[in-house]
Amino acid sequence: MHVLVVHDYGPLGKVLLERLRKTHLRVSPLLVSDPANADLKALESWIPEDADLIVNALWLADPEKAEANREAAHEVAFSLPLCLAEHARDRGMALLQLSSCYVFDGRKQGAYIASNPGQPINELGRWQWECEQALRTLLPRHILLRTGWSLGRFIRKLYESTGRADTLSLPGRCQGQPVAVQDLARVISAIVLQLDCGAEVWGTYQYAGSEEINLYELGLAIAGMPGIPEDIRVVDELPQWGHLEPVNTTMVCSKIKNTFGIKQLPWRTWLNEEVAMIKGTGSIDEKAEEKTEPTDL
What is the three-class DSSP state of 54? Predict the structure, then answer.
């Protein structure tokens, strides 16, 4: 099977490509250096004609960035995936598209299952939910993978607080499940390998690290890790961006296990590695940019 991985300068594309290249699969990268301003009309010339599966590894999991640039959020979370889906439909390809827990409004008392409809409360979730609905209509051979919180996002928050403030406010009222880059790459790779075996298991799936936690306690867990500045004090308060976070984003991840045999691993398993990755680069994007393939859209 020929797999095309669409990625940016973020860490997920790099880690996913490294994993897939260790398999028997034929893997091609497509670097989209500026997803918000990509030339979507150039897709035909960049996507190999013999590709069987397009994996869109542009992972959007930060509602703050989406609110700050709504036009960019629309392009990356909706327009680009739809363009990929139309191309895949017309040429008999399949598409694996990432979504997130932000499609939910957080009002449900229990954990969300894959069939629960989205009712987003922020810009990121709105466009991801619109994308999900459009893909279901447009392309039968699709995998939609909803993810939990980006673990790296909150590690960066602690680092960015260094020198700016003595405290970092994180809301204890918000419950969810983080997921690390390495774990997400593991899950995507496992799905791709199952599809290569001919599995016709299209639809919507969910994955996040096991163990539910609130954002305040997550901040405390990160703050206690080696390499995190010791002068940062995490407090249970609602920050300026707190209204963007649903109160409950916990998801049931049993469907992905029952279908693909993918176990839900504890996010704490990856915490040391995720902290080291961010600490070691200063900027993940800069490191990725140095080592990414020249193919660009």
Answer: strand
Number of neighbours of residue 5 by Cβ within 10 angstroms: 25
Residue 92 is given by DSSP the state: T
Six-digit token pair at 18? 């490294």
| Rounded Cα distance, 210 and 256, in Å | 13
Q: Cβ(224)–Cβ(154) under 8 Å? A: no
Q: Two tokens at 157?
A: 């928050």
DSSP class of residue 248?
A: B
Global confidence as pTM: 0.93
- DSSP states along 168-213: EEE-TT-EE-EE-HHHHHHHHHHHHHHHHTT----EEEEE--BS-E
Q: How far apart, in whole angstroms, are the C-alpha atoms of residue 88 and residue 142?
A: 9
Nearest-angstrom CA–CA distance, 10 and 248: 27
Cβ proximity of 29 and 13 under 8 Å: yes
CA-CA distance, 255 to 189, in Å (whole number)? 17
Q: What is the DSSP letter of 241?
A: G
Cα–Cα dist 10/288, whole Å: 6
Rg (CA), the chain: 18
Query: How confident is the model over 201-231, as pLDDT tens digits?
Result: 999 999 999 999 999 999 999 998 988 888 8
Residue 117 DSSP code: P
CA–CA distances in Å: residue 108 to residues 101, 132, 214, 248, 249: 13, 20, 16, 7, 9
CB atoms within 10 A of CB 260: 19
